Amino acid sequence: MDARLDPFTNPVLGKVFKHIIAAGKVLADSTLPASTQELVKLRASQINGCGFCTDMHFKDAVHAGESPERLNLVAAWREATVFTDAERAALELAEEATRIADASGGVPDEVWANAAEHYDEEQLGALVGVITVINAFNRGNVILQTPAGDYQPGQFG
Description:
63% of the residues lie in helices and 0% in strands. It is mostly helical and 157 residues long.
């Protein structure tokens, strides 16, 4: 199975992806814990049905030392006991923001307030950025039908 086109060789989409990647690098350098970032990326990718990003963020998280058991439970985080309250707040915000079209009025104030109890202003900004960037990548990869399964940790630097 091949993607509909290669975003890195397409002259327009390649430029767009480079900017999204640059935004991701800014977020990686933020004070939002890397493990939280990977959990959020994985959950949004699951919701959006992006096989490539689900594969990538699972593998990157395991490579960084995250437990496969916790990653396996991301899809059922509400029932799982392996996440901190802060991680749960981040996952809830990620879900609400990813499913924004399903909720009239956008992300509920209670969800934002819960996240704000656990993260400072810089971390909240990073959390919004991570959710925004992963949703952009998910949508691009779903449109392109980017195949999943062959990703190697660190493949994109």
